[in-house]
Amino acid sequence: MYAFVMSAGLGTRLRPLTYTIPKPMVPVANKPALEHTLVLLKKYGIEDIIINVHFMPEFIQDYFEDGSRWGVRIIYSHEKKLLGTAGGVKKAEEYLKNGTFLIMSGDGLTNIDLKKLISFHKNKKSAVTMALKPVSSRIEYGLTETNKKGRIMRFLEKPTWAETFKGVPVGINTGIYVLESWVLDYMPVGKEFDFAKNVFPLLLGDGKKIFGHYTDEYWCDIGNMTQYREAHNAILEGRASVKIEGRKKGKIWMGSCCKIHPSARFGGSAIIGNNCNIKAKTEISGLTVIGNNLFVDEGAVIKNCIIWDDVHIGKGVRAENCIIAKGTRMKEKISVYDGIIQ
Fold it and tell me: Are residues 216 and 314 in the same domain?
């Protein structure tokens, strides 16, 4: 089975972080978001993967290369012009036309059981099966309405509260789909086309079966700063399961070759990358992720921060609820709260 991993978007809602890096390469627990998706696919034996690229494609291609480091085989589909969710899949039709295939996002974080999803799809003899999350208090996502057997009856784009709660099952569209190859015939060649807006309504109009598979496993669309933080909090709190490098002591994961002064104090949960140098009388607390090659000078205070690689934090700096981008240098004795620092 092939998996098509969508990685061509511009990531506008994560700007300014995504001005200089593709959204799937934004680090989550010190690894690109896309890497977590590849690891999940490999776990369920899906090793043939197509990744579509558009913005700064070299970042993705240079890092993942042919995929052999993860035990998978990667084919890249370069979109010079963005073709939409379905249009990008249609471009890779030559690899997908011979059977069932899977679609996933390169910038989401999930622990979904793909075996259950695919088995559900085959048992229902569905044209398309969508992984759905039960509705929470947030309704900025597209929703689907299903009957009691899980068959999708209609789609709700940015619904009102009245539309959302009518006593029928509704779920958040996670963007994880299982499709039969003949669905590709509903997509035009070389044109911008979308699954939710175009393909799925066409299938429903023709009476084709589309089912929703509800999942209780963790899923988060890393679409904006709030969701980006939520993904890290879920990892640190144990709600999302990802592989974290290094050894764990208490609630702290520690990478290799780190120098931590004995007077440094830790509270809460933290992930600390490799080759980090943390000086005397520093305080690291809350839910904090620290990248590789970090230098923290004496007396610095870091709380609830996500810090990328190669960052230098000066003496007496205080940073709370911040995202600090790769290569940032923070001068001595400054304080930053609730900010993005580049």
Answer: no
Q: Which tens digits make up the pLDDT trace of 291-321?
A: 999 999 999 999 999 999 999 999 999 999 9
Q: Assess whether 196 and 334 both reside in one domain.
A: no
Contact (CB, 8 A) for 20 and 282: no
- Write out the two tokens for 221: 């669309």
Domain that holds residue 306: 247-341
CA atoms within 13 A on the CB side of 303: 10
pLDDT digits (tens, 9 = 90+) for 225-254: 888 999 999 999 989 988 888 888 889 999
Q: CATH number for the domain including 282?
A: 2.160.10.10
Query: Residues 96, 98, 104, 106: is their CA dihedral positive or negative?
Result: negative
Tally of CA atoms within 13 A in the half-sphere of 232 that contains its CB:
30
What pairs with residue 284 in β-bridges?
266, 302
Q: Are residues 195 and 286 in the same domain?
A: no
Write the pLDDT tens digit of every residue in 154-211: 666 555 444 444 544 567 888 899 999 999 999 999 899 998 889 998 998 899 989 9
Q: Would you say the pTM of this structure is higher than 0.85?
A: yes
Domain boundary among 210, 236, 262: 236
- Encode pLDDT of 44-55 as tens digits: 999 999 999 999
> Any idea of the CA torsion for 292, 229, 51, 4, to the nearest 10 degrees?
140
The DSSP secondary-structure symbol of 72 reads -
